[in-house]
Amino acid sequence: MRSPQSVFVLSVLLLSFAQGGTARAQGAPGQAPPPVTVAKPVVKDIIERTDFIGRFEAIDQVDIRARVTGYLDKVHFQDGTFVKAGDLLFTIDPRPYRNTLEQAQSAVTSAQVRLEFAQSDLDRAEQLRRTGNIADQLFDQRRQAFLTGKAEMDRAQAALRQAQLDVEFTEVKSPLSGRISRKLVSEGNLVIANQTILTNVLSLDPIQFYFDVDERSFLAFSRQTQGGTRTSTNGEKNEVTLTLTDERLGELKGEVDFVDNRLDAASGTIRLRAVFDNKDMFLTPGLFGRVTVGASDPYKGILVPDEAISSDQDRRVVYQVDEKNVVHLKPVRIGPRIDGYRVIRDGLTGNETLVVNGIVRVRPGMPITPQMTTLPPVRERNGS
What we know:
Layout: H1 4-26, E1 35-39, E2 42-46, E3 49-58, E4 61-65, E5 70-75, E6 82-83, E7 88-92, H2 95-131, H3 136-169, E8 171-173, E9 178-180, E10 190-191, E11 197-202, E12 207-214, H4 215-226, E13 238-244, E14 252-259, E15 269-276, E16 288-294, E17 299-304, E18 309-312, E19 315-321, E20 327-338, E21 341-346, E22 354-357, E23 369-373
Parallel strand pairs: 1-23
Antiparallel strand pairs: 1-22, 2-17, 3-12, 3-16, 4-11, 5-7, 5-10, 6-9, 7-8, 9-11, 12-15, 13-14, 13-16, 14-15, 17-21, 18-19, 19-20, 20-21
Helix pairs in contact: 2-3
């Protein structure tokens, strides 16, 4: 049996619990709506852009070969330096070709003497022919000797010109300005004409950047061009911005100057080319980079932070705050990132008040305590 004291204590506890439940049932003071940061979307003129990865290549590049065969006599440059068009790079031993040149000069002199003698014989024969004191056969022989001498003179002069070229070709000069590679052949080695590669030279200013555009993006660009939404349809170049692998924001400007005439069937891409100034020779062929290509003309865009956008099943939504500070779902269609914000293609007019921070604490139809803030026109990129 329970003692009367324990029964009394239990009765007091039950009574206290009942009173507390009655008080809660009658209604305690409610909590205030949670504070939430809200703001207007950023509305400004924007240009949609798309990023593509590519690689730099030289506009001009040439493998340096000798045009004559001989032993390499001297190298006139330092490996990896800049050279100008016409700079002397290599010297092939010129002595054999100078001897050939002297022989060709002597052959021209001999042919000239024979031609002059044949010309004199032909002149005398023509004078005798007028008086009939020379046989036709003898006249024809002298005329034949003159024509043969003239042909031998032409042949000797051609050999002389070739010998002069061979002597000139013993000096290997740079055909373009740019950065030269290392020497591939050392002095004393035999160089075979038109075969042995001595070094190579690449032009650096300006420099080209090749990148591949996927089929979907290419179709989108083509439709925009047909619709007149790209500046290139007005005769202007499509400007691009270059970002190197060690940069977060690109600053170097270039322009697209070439689009290939067909898509690669294997990769489903088409090749484009941009050209950049490279006065300081900093950009080097072979470097990777990222170009940002303009995909539209300027238009009035509506921008919101990514953290203000949520997902509701298969759609994207934002939380709009009405005049009574009540939250409502607003479906939107999003676009690319620009200036640190997400472009809203459809669903907003730009005059709405949106929840921009703390959307995990709100629900549709829920009242809030708005804390108004102003979004800056540009936010720092996060690298995405």
